[in-house]
Fold:
Amino acid sequence: MPAPVRVSFAPALLQGSAGRGLAAPVSTGVASFAVSGYAPQAVRRSDPAALQTLTGEAMGTTWSVRLHNPDFRPLDEARQAIEAALALVVRQMSNWEAGSDISRFNRAEPGSWHALPPEFFTVLACALDWAQASGGAWDPTVGPLVDLWGFGPRAEKEQGAGIPDAYALRRARERVGYQHIVLDLAGRRALQPGAVHVDFSGIAKGYSVDLVAERLQALGHTDFLVEVGGELRACGQRPGNQPWRVAVASMADQSTPLALPLRDMAIATSGDHWHAFEQGGRRYSHTIDPRSGEPVAHGLTSVTVLHAECMQADALATVLTVLGPREGLDFAEQRGVAALLCERTAQGPAMAMTTAFAALLP
Structure:
């Protein structure tokens, strides 16, 4: 049986240039998608020649594709399709790019309507759906709060991450509210009500995985594993009619990861392992609860979600992270979501999974 891909997860970055997050498989056949350490993949002796690998950098992180290519078609076409898909996501959805579609929308005049590219509109509609379903626990207009706490592209460089004063927090919260954005579904337009700042950092990386998979399928490829910055989507199967196998490190005990067989399934994780700060004896996560305007205060360290689409898995992982260990588990269970929640408690690390997640275990 082939060795599983082992996954630890980095936060979504969506920067136009590489260098912030690192993600690539290592030569043991186990993939480590962590911010620290990077090793390019080496082909294992046990891998058939038709199982090929492409890697690269985009969106401030790295990507990799494991491709079953039995006809040995030239890989240049696949690489170009992958790079074009990732460049499109940056061009449309990166808050770090002043000329991106999302940045232009955020700067637009109050009361103005904007025709959006289909990819941008798809992500925005999905984000607003989950914002409504979660009662605003996740909100794509949370950008002003992310910046205020020092985690966004407009954070004060001199100050860095830190606790804002009450007045600044109140002013930022006044600009947050998914209900202010109005969509024209027929015209694929969105209303900028004024000073609303959209941030796709909790969903766009997952969408980029789906878009890469879509572009590869358009080229006629059916069996591959796509990874962008730690978010993955498995399509088809490995050579030998074997499922792709992913070992999910719970972060509670990475020495005993959960190995999952995946066919036509995506996996995404939200966590506070890499992007946080400590002040006054408290750890402040980069995950902001839009309802309070502050970083989440519960003990969840990571949430892993499986879904047919990586965009949905990415969004749901963020939703559950904000909701917390109890409410998040209930939310996922009620909707049949396959989710694994890892929590830091006074008694040590604790893990909980939904019925749908447990059903996927071998």
The chain is about 25% helix and 25% strand. Residues 3-43, 155-159 have pLDDT under 50 and may be disordered. The longest strand covers residues 51-58. The chain has three domains: 48-95+200-235, 109-199, 241-361.
